[in-house]
């Protein structure tokens, strides 16, 4: 008899829960612990093989979150970190060795790039940045000393979609580990591990949390690379508080309904923006006009609420009039919460392998859970304020 694999919504509803182990409590309780006591000397001496041995190495709450991340991402193992940047640096350091060479997409998150430039360089690791649209052509950049290929799809500032399978296949032929920053999809709309990627990281601060009140990083991986990652993770003393792990687990339970709303509202707003005379282009992979739309359809089952658009050139005073009048859109870092955000951006400062010159002001939006018609009305009024 064929056993049906539960759907993703079912998995995120039930993963990381074991009520029978917690007196019937639906949610895994918050275990705040440093010291773990053992019942006898034999158990103490055998603690190396125990899953619970010291609070920094995990509690039932953090282990439940790790199990849930595995279910979400389709991975063998998972680790959780106190922030997305910590997850990034942990993975990069795990593969750092003198003389190593890393390939990193030119569209990568700013702190990823800064870690390569300011920290890895001190250890003799060289980083080459590549065009995110390169696909299978990345093979021409691989050297004998290349140890890691880093992807981010779509890029969180400029939204290029990468040909993940083509890059992964090239890496596998050369025995190179692949990593992807999967924060944009939340792990809900894309499971890169199923496409052969070795490691998928996220800023769980964003869609896993969903409420703009939690700092978290996640590292989902295949079994062959787990011990290498875990060794670095433990040596740096990385750990997540039980209360934060609990909030992340609670956020996961509503992920499906939130992500579907982000998807539909984001596309509605993006299509409206594409029709406005003040807008040069909309940077949303789900729109047929986007250069990476075909790849997005190939790999993703939906779109999150994060995208961008390019305005026709405006002076700073006009931009301030537009932005300062918003009430539903907040201005601030991060994204993935229930509220909508808007910020001007300048991706050009992070590019070296490619040029970002779209012909106007780049703006990044996060479409939250508000009524999309209200957000469109607010954007309409904002564009009206551009005029003196």
From TrEMBL:
Family annotation (InterPro entries): Cys/Met-Metab_PyrdxlP-dep_enz (IPR000277), Cys_b_lyase_bac (IPR006233), Cys_met_metab_PP (IPR054542), PyrdxlP-dep_Trfase (IPR015424), PyrdxlP-dep_Trfase_major (IPR015421), PyrdxlP-dep_Trfase_small (IPR015422)
Pathway: Amino-acid biosynthesis; L-methionine biosynthesis via de novo pathway; L-homocysteine from L-cystathionine: step 1/1
Catalyses which reaction(s): L,L-cystathionine + H2O = L-homocysteine + pyruvate + NH4(+); an S-substituted L-cysteine + H2O = a thiol + pyruvate + NH4(+)
Pfam families to which the protein is assigned, alphabetical: Cys_Met_Meta_PP
Superkingdom, taxonomy of origin: Bacteria
Keyword Lyase: yes
CDD domains per record: CGS_like (cd00614)
Cofactor(s), by name: pyridoxal 5'-phosphate
Keyword field contains Translocase: no
Keywords tagged on the record: Lyase, Pyridoxal phosphate
Family to which the UniProt record says this protein belongs: Belongs to the trans-sulfuration enzymes family.
Name of this protein: Cystathionine beta-lyase
Organism from which the protein derives: Gemmobacter nanjingensis
